[in-house]
From TrEMBL:
The keyword Membrane applies. Keywords: Membrane, Transmembrane, Transmembrane helix. The chain crosses the membrane at residues 126-149, 155-175. This is DUF2007 domain-containing protein. It comes from Candidatus Acetatifactor stercoripullorum.
Amino acid sequence: MPWCPKCKNEYREGITVCADCGCELVNEEQMEELVSVIFGEEEQMTSLKAFLEYQQIEGAVIRYDEQDQVFELLVRKNDRERALEIARIFLEQEGSLSQNREEKEENSTVYEKSEQKAEDNRSSAWTLLVVGGAGLVFLILGMGGVLPFSVGNPYLFYGVMSAVFLLFIVMGVVSMKNARVFEKKAESENTLRETLEKWCRENLDAEEIDKELGDVSGDGEEILYFKRYEKLKEKLNHQFMNLDQAFLENLIDETIYDMVFGDI
């Protein structure tokens, strides 16, 4: 009896396409002849399947893995080695096409820790407060005749300069308030960072992750890094809901990847 590898719905003989998702139906005999090649997002696996068919590897099937919540691409056993090589080429091409876009996004959305933001705001606040306060003191001394300033229109001069130095003080107060806000956010951020790192130490194993990736013997270092990186990101997003993705990516780059794969 044919069934859908994605929806798991069974159909009567003669039907070849799933009515719910449009996937090609398979039977048990076909599934026994298939082996895993790679896993990933549905759109990526669909594109890779089309690429395999273009390279005349027929019979590829996309199956949804409910346990890991990813889509898996399978091919016939005798096509596996060639499919792996084609998949590697596909990933390299896909990476080169998106490289410029990723670099632009990285330049425009560089992650900055709240702790660093707090320090920057605090430094700016003290600078503005000192300059504004010192400026007002000099103006008061000037208006009192202690420091005689030679100006054409004293009312205009003292009025404008007083407004400027008062603006500095106001900006300094605002920056100091922002620094306190970021300090509180940094505390929460550091707590979350420690929680994520602790969970990774206790639950993630490099060998187990590589097993989940399948056969990566033909992959270069960059592709292997990308696969491991995406797997780590996927597991953390699955375990912890609503994570800031910029924060998560920075944490994986700085700490978690080396923590998990540092000894390999």
